[in-house]
Predict the 3D structure of the following.
Amino acid sequence: MQHDSLEKKRFLQNTFKLTQHNTDIKTEIMAGITTFMTMAYIIIVNPLIMGETGMDQGAIFTATCLSAAVATLIMAFLANYPFVLAPGMGLNAFFAYTVVLGMGYSWEFALTAVFIEGIIFIILTFFNIREAIINVMPMNIKNAVSVGIGLFIAFIGLANAGIVVANPATKVSLGDMGNPIALVAIIGLIITGILLAKNVKGALLIGIIATTIIGVPFGVTSMPTGFVSAPPSLAPIAFKLDFKNIFSMDMLVIMFTFLFVDLFDTLGTLVGVASKADMLDKDGKLPKAKQALFADAVGTTFGALMGTSTVTTYVESASGVAVGGRTGLTAFTSGVLFLLALLFSPIIRIIPAAATAPALILVGLFMMSPIKKIDLDDFTEAIPAFLTIIMMPLAYSIAEGITFGILAYVFLKMLTGRTKELSIPMYILAILFILKFAM
């Protein structure tokens, strides 16, 4: 028995190169659980959003878990990075509310657009085009992406808890602090903050569990209806692609939108979280970027076949990195938990937004440290970095933050006579961003 245990440890050490990354099995597993807990909401939210199109919600639940698990396990073994993937928020809303409900296309048509996007991503990854985009981004922009993601993820946490709410007069305002959800989230924030201050291992995970329990008497956490249930069948939505009208202008615009948002959301998340974890090399490049992007591309293609929207790298991966996750063992742990969620959905579904909100808010803090590396004295560097940071939470999009940052960088360098600092790919990116706005 002891021999088997040693063999398993040796396998994990060798597979994920834990010693080289100054980490250990316990830390990586804890990080994987933490990441999963902070993004488990997608298991519930994705079926609700996509179910608006008439798709079977039970089948979407199964497709969500399977596509997240497959993409994340590819990330774990191929790239050995602690990044976790799942159907992307925002992309699923575009799928449901714009393409299907807004434009009147069938959900089968929308899935076909996602499938084609995934195939294009595989081709782009094979020819290193996506990796080249990461490498060409200026270092100040890369550091700004990390900070912007920090503000963005903190804003998501505050909004999920009802601490900040929409306001027609002021755009956003303070929510009702007497609301049980906000109150439980604030209690959870205090508890998690104390745990972090005391350097308690797994503080974020313990905070999520403690806040979930505290939510019971407040009526925020529902008691589980059971512990185990069989996963719903995929039959109503799997392999339901519709290739009619694939050469129409609408298909081109829809596919380009999926492509653009997924491309720069993924690039932004990879760069931002990697910057925080000091995974970028001395030239600001991400080693094994090709393998990481391949996981995203295959996940999107597989997800479309299963019946869900675009799969992308999740910004919540930062929560696992924040507690020490540095290798694919973190991703592997999260991937296995997505598979287990197929059976233990009654337990997973009781975790309220109020319990994950404190973790997201504090991860926002952890993501801020690269701001110290940004050159704030050179305005041709500082302004693009600032726009990258501020537009992510305000536009509610990592992709739009990168868009504004890159455009500002190119225009400022051009108009101040510093074109030598610009590369051809940067000009191409700027043109593509302008075309995106025009479309």
